[in-house]
Amino acid sequence: SYLGIDAGGTLVKFAFYHKGILTFHKIPSAHMSAAAAWITEQFSGAQLCVTGGKSKLLQSYLGREMQEMVEFEATCSGAAYLLKEQGTNESSYVLTNVGTGTSIHFVQGEEHSRVGGTGVGGGTLMGLSYLLTGHSDYRQIMSLSREGDRANIDLKVSHIYEGAEPPIPGELTASNFGRVLQGSDSSRDADKLACVVGLVGETVTTMSVLAAGKCGVATVVYIGSSFVDNDLLREIVLRYTVLRGAQPIVLANGEFSGAIGALRSV
Ligand code: ADP
After folding, report:
1. Which of 14, 56, 75, 87 registers the highest number of CB atoms within 10 A of its CB?
2. Whose CA is nearest to atom 16 of ligand 1?
3. pLDDT lower than 50: segments of the chain
4. Which is it for strands 47-51 and 67-68: parallel, antiparallel or unpaired?
């Protein structure tokens, strides 16, 4: 049997075929010995291929070496596979991976290149949320963020123009967290969390849309575990990408792209 592994900064992702069906699994990178134990139990005789920043660490826990793949190669290959499987025949697009950090690639058929990235990503979601509210459980943070209201924390373009006709859409955020010291009290934990998601979503979207413009493509494909159980991030990214004039796709199971790419190379 075969196993593709993406050992990332936060989560180790696995992709494999079970009874002919592409199947996924994940274990937190903080529990690397558990990840190694799972591999040994479930895939002792399997052919393995690993990618991601924690590849070497995982191999040291496993006590054996395995085939390795360059991370960006694996991510782009896996994402292309998922796109095709999900019925999209897009071949040129910007691929934005919102993992612990965010990486942006230009994909053109079989070719791909990294166009940039930002430290604002899923790790920022977790870290800022904790600093602002004390919450540290991913699912809890994301479900709370859904009940939040950004109106008293984020400054919109329309707030600045107050009734006047703004030169850009009034719905755009002029300043994330920019309204905090401008009067209105407020800010429940849910509001703060919604604004953290807004900051991350709008930052990665803005960079992606600029990259799409530079690369001459209209489509941005978003992947990464930051979209898992995170309706608010998904909504913000979809809406903001359209508002900025590009066409978004948030790929289902996109967080397993790297693991799928690794699986496909063994
Ligand atoms: P990496 O490959 O760097 O580990 P991922 O694509 O797995 O990146 O995304 C990691 C991010 O996904 C985290 O920073 C967090 O925002 C989010 N996330 C989703 N599910 C979880 C989870 N169960 N535990 C922690 N973070 C999670």
Report:
1. 75
2. 122
3. none
4. parallel
Among 6, 82, 137, 225, which is best to mutate for testing ligand 1, by the most ligand atoms less than 8 A from CB?
225
Which residue has 């489509």 as its token pair?
Answer: 219
**CB of residue 11 inside a 6 A radius of ligand 1:** yes
The confidence score (pLDDT) of residue 163 equals 86
Is 81 part of any domain?
no
3-state secondary structure of 144: helix
> Does the Cβ of 201 fall within 6 Å of ligand 1?
no
Ligand 1, closest atom to CA 121? 14
* d(CA 123, ligand 1 centre) in Å: 7
Domain that holds residue 8: 2-70+257-265
> What is the C-alpha separation between 97 and 208, in angstroms, rounded?
10
User: What radius of gyration do the chain's Cα atoms show?
Assistant: 20
Q: What is the distance between the alpha carbons of residues 76 and 104, in angstroms, rounded to a whole number?
A: 10
Q: Residue 174, exposed/middle/buried by CB under 10 A (0-12, 13-18, 19+)?
A: middle
């529990």: which residue's tokens? 31
Closest ligand 1 atom to residue 29 Cα is: 4
Residues serving a catalytic function are 71
Chain segment 59-82, per-residue pLDDT in tens: 999 998 899 999 999 999 999 999
pLDDT tens for each residue of 24-41: 999 999 999 999 999 999
Domain CATH code at residue 59: 3.30.420.40
Instruction: Indicate if 223 and 139 belong to the same structural domain.
Output: yes
Closest C-alpha to ligand 1, atom 17: 226
